[in-house]
């Protein structure tokens, strides 16, 4: 009994489509790895999902190959240097943008926490004030203070 033939058309169910994408992506990456090993070849694979997420796979070192500088012309080296400078400036600009967003977010969070802290301090102050008045009242009304004809002592805040 063999495998059934799958009709190649768009899968309408979103979750089924996602499951199929993940399985097929992993299978494709495994096949690329096998091809690289079996045929002793360099293989690079780029997959972009429908959400725009990039998946990549490459055989061997994924870093830039070193080239012999004797084979490259000065114009090519200058062009390469300019490309690196451009890439570096774009990277730094994006990094600065992300850092500024982070600083702004943290400042907003700090502002919210300070406001929350002020509310808590005022609530605590009110609670401590009520507690102080209640304990003074209870002390003044206690049986040991009401012995004899002595009227209860007035609260310190009312004096």
Automatic annotation (TrEMBL):
Pfam families registered for this protein in UniProt: K-box (PF01486), SRF-TF (PF00319)
Polar residues bias locations: 143-152
Region (Disordered): 137-159
Entry-linked SUPFAM superfamilies: SRF-like
Domain MADS-box per the UniProt entry, residue ranges: 1-61
Domain K-box: 12-130
GO MF annotations in UniProt: DNA binding; DNA-binding transcription factor activity; protein dimerization activity
Gene Ontology annotations for the cellular component aspect, listed alphabetically: nucleus
Keywords (A to Z) from UniProt: DNA-binding, Nucleus, Transcription, Transcription regulation
Compartment annotation: Nucleus
Protein name listed in UniProt: MADS-box domain-containing protein
Species whose genome carries this gene: Eutrema salsugineum
């Amino acid at each position: 009994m063999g495998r059934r033939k799958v009709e190649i058309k768009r899968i309408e169910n979103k979750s089924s489509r996602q499951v199929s994408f993940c399985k097929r992506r992993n299978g494709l990456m495994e096949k690329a790895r096998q091809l690289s090993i079996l045929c002793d070849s360099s293989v690079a694979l780029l997959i972009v999902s429908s959400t725009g997420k990039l998946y990549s796979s490459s055989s061997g070192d994924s870093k830039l190959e070193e080239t012999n500088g004797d084979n490259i012309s000065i114009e090519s080296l200058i062009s390469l240097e300019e490309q690196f400078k451009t890439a570096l400036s774009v990277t730094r600009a994006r990094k600065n943008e992300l850092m500024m967003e982070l600083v702004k977010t943290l400042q907003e969070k700090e502002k919210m926490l300070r406001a929350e802290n002020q509310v808590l301090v005022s609530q605590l102050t009110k609670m401590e004030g009520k507690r102080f008045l209640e304990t003074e009242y209870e002390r003044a009304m206690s049986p040991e203070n009401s012995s004899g004809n002595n009227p209860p002592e007035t609260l310190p805040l009312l004096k």
